[in-house]
Amino acid sequence: MIIVNGHMPTYTSFPNGELNVSMDASAIEEAIESQKLEVTWRFKDNNDFIKLGILISYLESFKKLDTVFIYFNILYLPYERMDRPEIGSHNSFSLSVVNNMLHALGGAIIYKIIEPHSDTIFYINDSYDGGKYFDDDGKCFSQSIYPSVQKTKELLSGFSSGNRHNLLVFPDKGALARYKKFNFYNCDIVVGHKTRDLNTHKITDIYVTNLQDERVDDLSKYDQAIIIDDLVSYGGTFTRLGKLLKDDGVPKVILVVCHAEDSIFKGYLLTNSSPIDCVWATETMTNLTSKALYNKKLNVYSFLI
């Protein structure tokens, strides 16, 4: 899905399959008048990259748009989990390829990335500071937004009962690195750790530690635990973690994520017997609202770009 100032471009194909793009003239006139062109992109498939390139080239053909900044909202940046070369493997460093493609779009583009997987996610060779990425001249050209943090803080606010508290759970060290820069109040924090069988790749052990890296096994003083992460697929790790938290004494476990794949409906996570009592997710990757009507555990939340 690609939207420009609230309008969807029209893509047509030539007889040999090559794409052509056109737009409602009112969208172009609106951009010229407001001096702002806003593109919102929700990744559908790899064809989107050529569609984006053709779209930007088409928009730049309007001379009156020469001085208009393009604000590019990326709801989910594809290949963002392949954000580094893996030592000892032959996996491709796919994120660097995506970065090069987006660089090649040209134009005066200011990017806004929703819930990036890591600080290295965008323009890897440029500098980063507190959610903003800068070019060599020190000009901000990209900003990150974390809907899951906003939702988690909302769930944490005002919730306490005597000496009982909220427990905030980072499911792994990656999540700790992603969210430790945010100030979470009215909660204690633990970090998940898991070990896998190298032959079967199945999780053989899972436990949590405090921020001093001390293992914690008694969590009975907490009313609820909130697990926060950027993305959920089938949810196997979250269900294992949820079971651990309940076995250790937490009566209610909530999962808050930003990105949710369609595979969330194919795993154990949203079933009645799942240890996760409630899942909060956005529609950055797929439409969830209609499906959530038939699943009591799934809650869809929105956010401001």
Which structural class should the secondary elements be placed in?
Answer: alpha/beta
Reported for the largest beta sheet, the result is: 8 strands, mixed
Strand content: 25-35%
Number of domains: 2
- Low-pLDDT segments: 123-130
Instruction: Enumerate how many helices there are, as a single number.
Output: 7
Radius of gyration over alpha carbons?
22 Å
The residue fraction in helices comes out at 10-25%
Identify the overall geometry.
Answer: elongated
How would you spell out the order of helices and strands? Answer: EEEHEHEHEEEEHEHEEEEEHEEEHE
CATH class call of the largest domain: Alpha Beta
Strand order of the largest sheet: 13-12-11-10-14-16-18-19
Q: How many strands appear in the DSSP assignment?
A: 19
Describe the structure.
The two termini are 16 Å apart. Helix 7 links the parallel strand 18 (278-281) and strand 19. It is elongated, with a radius of gyration of 22 Å. The chain folds into 2 domains: 2-145, Rossmann fold, CATH 3.40.50.2020; 148-300, Rossmann fold (3-Layer(aba) Sandwich), CATH 3.40.50. The protein is built from 7 helices and 19 strands. It has 305 residues and is α/β, with parallel strands linked by helices. The longest helix has 14 residues, at 47-60.
Quick summary:
With about 300 residues, the chain is of the alpha/beta class.
